[in-house]
Amino acid sequence: MVTDPSCIFCKVIAGELPSSRIYEDDRTIAFMDINPGSHGHALVIPRSHATDLHSIDADDLAAVTATAQKVAGLAVEHLGADGVNLLNCAGADAWQTVFHFHMHVIPRYAGQPEKDPLVLPWQPAPGDPDRIAQAAAAYRGEGADA
């Protein structure tokens, strides 16, 4: 297993830093976020250190996703969440602050701002069809970045 001695999540895994663990298996650990966005906000991490989405092993990514699904189900069943957001931030410009891959499991509570003060960070609105097509072509490697 890969570890980084300067990584706070590797220290959580090793038991060097405290955490409120809610689930663990041979590949993953789920624990409460100490900076929660909502009531029951949890993090799921791989036991093996990977900086972000671009560097995590595919099997570890699958294991984190499976654990996040379990934790999301527990949030609905035991915390009474009305919904759940799964969030991963890959890179500082995407709001990543701890550089050990992690998935946020954020329970959502309809009409309960004391448990769930989060709001949608953008206003969904139709995009420019030409720019959407340009981005799709760029993803396929068919042209310049949109």
Verbal overview:
- The longest helix is centred in the middle third of the chain and has 22 residues, at 58-79.
- The protein is built from 3 helices and 5 strands; from the N terminus they run H-E-E-E-H-E-E-H.
- The protein is 27% helix and 17% strand.
- It has a single domain, classed as HIT-like (HIT family, subunit A), CATH 3.30.428.
- With 146 residues, the chain is α+β, with helices and mostly antiparallel strands.
- The radius of gyration is 17 Å and the shape is globular.
- The chain has a 5-stranded antiparallel beta sheet with strand order 1-2-3-5-4, covered by helices on one side.
* Radius of gyration computed on alpha carbons: 17 Å
SSE order: HEEEHEEH
Figure out the total of helices.
Answer: 3
Structural class: alpha+beta
What is the total number of structural domains? 1
The main pleated sheet reads as:
5 strands, antiparallel
